[in-house]
Amino acid sequence: MRRIKLGIIDDSIFCRNLTKLQLLNFNKVRFDFVLEAESIADFQTKAEKTAVPEVILLDVMMPGIDGVSGIPIIKQKFPNTHIIMLSDTINPAIIRNSILGGAYAFVNKGTKTCELVDIINDVLTGSCYACPELTKSLFFGIQKPPQDRRKLSERELHIVHRMLEGLSLQKIAMSYKISIERLWVLINRIIVKLNINYKHPFIG
After folding, report:
1. Cα distances (angstroms) measured from residue 178 to each of 8, 9, 68, 96, 105
2. pLDDT by residue (tens digit) across 77-97?
3. Which residues have C-beta within 8 Å of that of residue 116, sequence separation ≥ 6?
4. Number of other residues whose CB lies within 10 A of the CB of residue 101
5. Which one-letter DSSP state was computed for residue 129?
6. Whole-prediction pTM value?
7. What is the rounded CA–CA span in Å between residue 34 and residue 47?
8. How far is C-alpha 52 from the geometric centre of its chain's CA atoms?
9. More confidently predicted of 186 and 201
10. Which residues contact 23 (CB under 8 A, 6 or more apart)?
């Protein structure tokens, strides 16, 4: 049975325990939680005394240093650790900043255990993943009248279709021979052209 060393940083003890319960009861992979912290400051204190986690599950919204701002702090201590952001937000700017900052995935809290395990396995192979709500919004965006869809270039339309097919951001970027940063520029442009509304409450 495969073993994966995990860390979790979340100010909510309920969320930490729920996530741990999810993964510890998964019988196809053994997860060893080698690090648990309630904030980035708490992480900095504990990081010196812990084994290096392969993956850290990082909450976005926390008191003090937020998750996105904490990414470089974690990377400085554990440069080879893969970071997965956990949140309820679907704000594309936060997703973009997380992935550009060095996170490998952005996942909704409450994601099914089997899906979370698949995402963890994917990021360990170098893939990037954005939550399905962004893809869902793009789907509804292209269901708009034809005159709205015609605002998209052929490449932009292809990118939307690749996301709807479930391809990772890494694979989409590689297929167009562009960087993840350039891909996010194109995704943001698509969002603007389709007039997709992302005014959702930020709940970390």
Report:
1. 32, 32, 23, 15, 18
2. 999 999 999 987 766 677 777
3. 22, 23, 107
4. 17
5. B
6. 0.72
7. 10
8. 20
9. 186
10. 6, 31, 113, 116, 117
3-state secondary structure of 83: strand
Residue indicated by tokens 């992480």: 43
> Token match 């909450």: residue?
59
Q: Which amino acid is at 50?
A: T
Which three-class secondary structure state does DSSP give residue 105? strand
Return mean pLDDT, the chain: 82
Q: To which H or E segment does residue 116 belong?
A: helix 113-124
Give me the phi and psi of 4, to 5 degrees please.
-130, 130
Q: How far apart are CA 182 and CA 51, in angstroms?
A: 35
Q: Across the strands, what pairs with 35? A: 7
CA-CA distance, 90 to 106, in Å (whole number)? 9
Residue for token pair 């930020």: 202
Residue type, 168: S
What strands, in cross-sheet order, belong to the sheet with 2-9? 29-37, 2-9, 55-59, 82-87, 105-108
DSSP notation for 32-64: EEEEEESSHHHHHHHGGGSPPPSEEEEESS-SS
